[in-house]
Amino acid sequence: MRLSQFFGGRGRRLLAASLALGSLLATSAALAAGNYEFLAAPQTDLNRVFRLDKATGEIGACQYGLKEGTAIGVTLCYPPGEGAKAGTFSEYALVASRHTGEGGVFRVDLRSGMMSICFVLNESSVVCTPQAK
C-alpha cells in the first residue's frame, strides 16, 4: 500500500513537509559546522594555530607545549584578550602575511574592509590592534 492510498492527499503533503524540514535541518547543520576558521601563524619555528569565529570576529590561539613527565605534551590555548573578543556581527576571515618571522595574523572584516593584527601577548592571551582601513 502506498502512502497516498493510506493517507490520501494528506500523505503527499506530510511527505513534502517532512522532506522540506529534513532539508532545512541539514542546511542548518552545515551552516553551524562552518562557524570557525583556523590558520597557522606564518612564523616557521612556531607551532601556533589561530581560531576565528567568522561571525563575531572573536579570535583565540592554541599551540603544542612540552610538559615535564609526559610523553605526549599538552595543548596550550590563549583566550581572547583586548581587541580579540567578540565584536560586531559581520563576516570575518584570517590572512597570514608571508613574513616567516611573523607570529601574528590579520583579522579582516570582509564586509567593511577593516582589518587588525592579532597576536599572543606575553604568552597569556590573544590581543588585536584597533581596526583600521
What does this molecule look like?
The chain is an alpha+beta fold and 133 residues long. It is 23% helix and 32% strand. It has two helices and eight strands; from the N terminus they run H-H-E-E-E-E-E-E-E-E. The strands form two sheets. The chain has a four-stranded antiparallel β-sheet with strand order 1-2-3-4, with no helix packed on it. A four-stranded antiparallel β-sheet has the order 5-6-7-8, with no helix packed on it. The radius of gyration is 22 Å and the shape is globular. The termini are far apart.
Question: In summary, what is this structure?
Answer:
The chain is α+β, with helices and mostly antiparallel strands and 133 residues long. It has two helices and eight strands. The longest helix is centred in the first third of the chain and has 25 residues, at 9-33.
In the predicted model, the low-confidence regions spanning at least 5 consecutive residues are: 24-30
Structural class: alpha+beta
User: What general outline do the C-alpha atoms trace?
Assistant: globular
In total, the number of strands is: 8
Please compute the radius of gyration using only Cα atoms.
22 Å
Percent of residues in helical segments?
A: 10-25%
What's the helix count?
Answer: 2
For the record, give the distance between the C-alpha atoms at the N and C termini, rounded to a whole number. Answer: 66 Å
Order of adjacent strands in the largest pleated sheet: 1-2-3-4
Order of helices and strands: HHEEEEEEEE
Rounded mean pLDDT score = 83
Write the layout of secondary structure elements.
Layout: H1 3-7, H2 9-33, E1 36-40, E2 48-53, E3 59-65, E4 74-78, E5 92-95, E6 105-109, E7 115-121, E8 125-128
Antiparallel strand pairs: 1-2, 2-3, 3-4, 5-6, 6-7, 7-8
